[in-house]
Amino acid sequence: MSSYAKQYGSSGEERVCHILQDQGFTILARNYLTRGGELDVIARKHDLVVFVEVKTRAKSLFDLSTVITHAKQHKMIQTAEQFLVSHRLEDVECRFDVALLESDEYGTSHLTYLSDAFQREW
Fold first, then answer.
1. Which residue from 61, 52, 59, 63 is spatially nearest to 20, judged by alpha carbons?
2. CA distances from 19 to 26, 46, 85, 89, 111 (A)
3. 10 lies in which domain range?
4. Which of 6, 28, 40, 70 is the most buried (most CB within 10 A)?
5. Burial of 40 per CB tally in 10 Å (0-12, 13-18, 19+)
């Protein structure tokens, strides 16, 4: 991955963190990594823990049907479970969100935030 791609991805994660904080969330972790996967942003507000996958693209449209595959969902769920156990978070509601950040040909970025993008029974 190029340094520009890393910087663009990081700026997308930063933007999502600011939005969540503006909504009253506390950021618990960024780029939480385990053997099984990675979670870009983890945030909490009261008894709700939100796990956010941030996808950034420059100049290309998202194909929403392929943004988060079933395999990626499975990895996110497993990683979220590990996070909850390792941080002793019990009796919390969990939600999986997806943030799509895309730049147009003029360099203007557009954010689409999909709250509760997929679910898992806890």
1. 52
2. 11, 17, 26, 23, 11
3. 3-118
4. 40
5. buried
What's the total number of domains in the chain?
A: 1
Could you report the per-residue pLDDT of 3-38, keeping only the tens digit for each? 555 555 577 899 999 999 999 999 999 999 999 899
Q: List Cβ neighbours of 24 (8 Å cut-off, separation of 6 or more).
A: 45
Q: What is the pTM (predicted TM-score) of this model? A: 0.86
* Residue closest to 114 by CA, chosen among 48, 82, 67, 57: 67
- Per DSSP, 46 falls in state T
114-121 long-range Cβ contacts below 8 angstroms, 24+ apart:
117/53, 117/68, 118/68, 118/73, 120/73, 120/77, 120/94, 120/96
CATH number at residue 18: 3.40.1350.10
Residues 40-53 have pLDDT tens digits of: 999 999 999 999 99
Alpha-carbon span 119 to 101, nearest angstrom = 21
